[in-house]
Amino acid sequence: MPRDSRDSLATEIEGTLSTARPDVEVVDVTFIPQQGIVRVMIDHPSGVDHALCQEVTALLPHVRERYGVEVSSPGIERPLKKPSHYRRAEGQTVKVRLREPRDGRRNFQGRLVGAEDESFRLRADDAELELPYAVVDTCNIVWDPVNI
Question: Pseudo-torsion of CA 48, 49, 53, 55, nearest 10°?
């Protein structure tokens, strides 16, 4: 099995899609070397359906030669990975898990009130926190049926 890294695969996949389908955003690439699988999470302004997932899979033969490829949508509790994702989610409720505890806590939930290039601001528990992206383990939008 080739010794690719998650970053090199993500760069390869993003490059292919930015040329072939610039309207498709690569949200995340997860590489599971033990299983020989690459999971590609995509988004599109019109949504993601099975046909789009099939099309994206077909655009990645160079990856499929080496690994199994799974393509999916981000779902309703979309993960936030890039500063642009955070900016697009401003005003929404998010749940955040930090890599290391802050004030004795690793988990926070609150309203995303701002996002910059290196950090974002979260209003939680009647306080506003500024969190650098580098300290975030995971961050997801919290689905709220009232706001659909």
Answer: -100
Which residue ranges form the domains of the chain, and what is each CATH number?
Answer: 6-72 (3.30.300.20), 83-147 (2.30.30.180)
Tens digits of residue pLDDT in 82-113: 999 999 999 999 999 999 999 899 999 999 99
In contact, 140 and 95? CB cutoff 8 Å: yes
Task: Count Cα neighbours of 146 within 13 Å in the Cβ-side half-sphere.
Answer: 3
Would you say 78 and 39 are in contact if contact means Cβ atoms under 8 Å apart? no
Cα 52 from Cα 44, distance rounded (Å):
9
Q: Do the Cβ atoms of 79 and 138 come closer than 8 Å?
A: yes
